[in-house]
Every structure is written in structure tokens, then in C-alpha cells.
Amino acid sequence: MEPVRKAEGLPHIRRQSRYSKTLEPKSSEPTITVLKRIAQAGTKNQERLSLVNKKTVASIFAVVSGVTIITLVSSLTFGGQKQKTTAAAPSNIASYLPASDAVAIVDVKRMLNETMPSILGSDQAKLAQANAEVDKFKTKTGLDLRQFNRVAVGMRYAYPNATTTKLETVAIAHGTFDAKDVSASARAAAPGKSREEKYRGLTITIINVNDQIKLLGLWNMTISELAICPLDPTSLALGTLANVKAAIDAGKSGRAPAELISLATKDPAAVIGFGANITPELVSKLDLGNDTIAKDVSSIKQAYGSVGSTQSDVTVMMVARTDSAGAAKNLGDTVEGLRQLGTMFIGRLADPRRALAESALNNLKVTARETEVEIRTQVAAANLAALIK
Predict the structure, then answer these.
(1) Partners of 322 in the β-ladder
(2) CB atoms < 10 A from the CB of 279, how many?
(3) pLDDT value for 261
(4) What's the 3-state SS for 159-203?
């Protein structure tokens, strides 16, 4: 996977002498006060808005809708006809997951049969394009995503250098697989470009894909070498060779933290659920720009949430678990301040992003409870479809 670069999207204050007294935060000043002063400065004089990166501030209030799109697409799975389904039972969801810093659970059947048709159902051309991408994945790898019932993703943070965070990822797909068919299909999809390796009694097929697969027309995902291993009649591991071996070592009991599994499955009706540890080293790689905001973010110890869908809407819930009730209140104030600040820039976005951002912002609810800050919003499925080219 490509490394995750320094985070961009949180506003920072450019210290210019003309406005330094107005906009530079005091050491003990709450973030909400800083944000309000920035907003007031912008109202009095539009030129002062240059002190805040407009593009990144605009992305703040659209972050929930952005997470929705990225999560939906990156876990994909594209739709067919709408069918009534029930939430997948998480009885063996931890099986084969290695030690992880973050875990995500995707109900692929519901994604295929409900969520994506609700987004693309009114545009048959886009729905056909989405299905064509699934077919391309099958052609390149020999794997049919339509055979997956549920996918559990385990992620570990790696730090190859001082400014980069890399996610070491393995996916455990649950469905019904014939081990011989899976291996044969993978070899057939990459004639002369595959090899096999035995590990602890199992056969891992490694294929050289070396291609880009366009997900829903949004961006290209580069796949170089992909390791595939049937683990048992209902489980399949996908990832790098090292990470697939880690899944084999984990076995049916799994090695992912039980707390992360619990967080990722907190909402049994979710299409996607996730849980993650937010480590000090991970936070230290983020370029937050403002010391006060950095302090608020550094108080976050875990994050979890879910994505759900109906025929007309996509809903997102995200929770930040902090180290104290006071930190949760400050973080909640920061998020609320950013939401207010976002209203100053929403009119500058072009449709359809403006409609999506307006929907996400208008429906955004921020609630601080004890040591947690909960953020909820929903957007119209049709608005998401408008972003898919």
C-alpha cells in the first residue's frame, strides 16, 4: 500500500505580522475561542480569509462526507439489484486477523445488494461501470468479489521515516470458497506471472498484477504483487506475502485486540464498522499546524464508528475516545468551531460537492459524553452518486 502522507485538511494559522495579535492563539486559550476570532476577522475583512487555507478549511466540514465516499469505495463491491438482507453475524469475525492497530468490518453482501444500488440505482451507466470494475478485478486476480459475504481488515501502523505513516494491511474475506478453484483461478488470471509458496501446510499463490484498477471512476488503486491464500472452506486471506503469513500464524482464534473487534462491531446493523487505536507516534506524524488543536487531537486514544445506509441516505457515525472528560469537551468545542467556520466557505464550492457538503454540514451533530465525542451526519445517496464520474 502507498504510504499515508502528512495529514492535510486541518486549518492552520499563518503568522503574519499585520494580524498576529488578532489571530495568534494564546498559550492557554481554548481552540473554540481561536476559531471564533478567525471567523470574526474574516467577517470584518474578506482579505483576512487568506490567513486560513481556504481549501483545507472547506475540507474540514466535508470530512464526514469524504470519509463516507472513501470508505464505501475502498471497501468495494459494486451493486446488482436491491434485495432485502440482514446484518451478518460476527461470530467468527476475529478469525485469522493478526495483531492490529485498527480493524474494519465490511458487510459485502449488503454493500453489493443495498448500499451501492441505492447510490447508483438512478444512473444505469454508472452502475454498469461499477460492475465492469468488479469484472476487471476478477480478470486481473481470479477473485470474484461477489462471492464475498463479509471482509475483515486488519491494519498495523509502520513508520518508514520521520514523516511517513504506512498501513500494513491484510484482508480476510469470508464466503464459500473452493481452495483448488481459488488457486487455479489466480494462476489463470496471471499466466507466467504467478508463483506458489507453502507455509504451515497451506498454499499461498502470489501473482504479479502490476496494474491500476479504477474504483468507481474516483481514483486508481495500484496493485503490484498480491498474495492469496484459502485458509479454510469459508475464509480467504489477501495482502502482501508477509501479511498473509501473519494471518495464517494468527489462526482461527485470531490475534487482533478484542477491544478493537468490539468497537468495530458495536453497531450490528452497520454496513461498515471500524475501531482503531490512536497512538502518540501516529499523532506525531500529523502536521496539525496549531498547538491548541494539536493538544486536542493528542488527547484521542481510540476512534470507532460505522457507516449505514437506507434506500435514500447514507449515515456516518464517528466517535473519538479521549483521556478525560475535560479533553472530550475541548475536542467537541473544536469540532463545533470548525463546523461553524466551514459555513463561511461552503458557498465557494461548486456543485455537486457543495450539495454534498451542505447536506453533511446541516445534518452534523456533535455530542460530548464523558470521555467521548460523537459525530453523526447523513447525506443523500443521490448526492454521493453525483461525485462518481
Answers:
(1) 300
(2) 13
(3) 96
(4) EEECCEEEEEEEEEEEECCCHHHHHHHHHHHCCCCEEEEEECCEE
